[in-house]
Structures are given as C-alpha cells and as structure tokens.
Amino acid sequence: MSIDFDKALGVHPEALRLRGERTRILAANIANESTPGYQARDIDFSATLQETLQADAGAGPAGGGAGDALYRVPYHPSADGNTVELGVEQAAFAQNAQDFQASLSFLNMQLKGLAKVIAG
Question: Which of 47, 66, 105, 115 lies most in the core, judged by the most C-beta atoms within 10 Å?
Fold first, then answer.
C-alpha cells in the first residue's frame, strides 16, 4: 500500500509555495519604497490558491489572471508616482509571515502523523 503525499499533506505545500512568492513580491515593494515611479504589487492569495488547486484536480487549465501580481492602489499617492506605502507593505509582510508559519506548523504536524503511521 502506498501513500499519496499530495492527498496526505493537503493544501499546505502549495500554500507554502504561494506564501514564499508573496513574500518575494512584498519584499520587492519594501525595497523600492523610494524608487520614483515604482508600482507596488501583490497577489490575491486565496484566488491564486483556489486556481492552483482546481488546476491540480483537473477542473480546468491554470493561468489567466488570479496568480499574476496585481498592482496595489495607494491610499495616498505620492508626487513621484511611487505607490509603495511602507506601513501597508510592512503590515502585509508581517501577516504573510505569520500565515507562512501557520502553514508550516500544519505541514509539520501532518508529517509527524505520517511518520507515526509508517513506524507503526
């Protein structure tokens, strides 16, 4: 009897991959806070995860919009065209880091459970 790790681990491996990608995008926003004309970007995590899971299940082709980085609309536009708002980016980065840690914890618990089952 074999173990289907895709089913056993659930959505967490894909969630970790998407959280890592979002971390990269948010870090780029923070790094370009002072770059004139830089447009802050982000991804819609839940829509991207849903799209990825449907594509993995064979419910339709992946791609086309949800997984692409979207431009963020600033609350207070700057004169130089930069749309990065440091407070907004830092809050999004911190929340994403907490969500990454939560998915990592769930994945760790599932792997420990699988190890117990395998060990008997």
Answer: 66
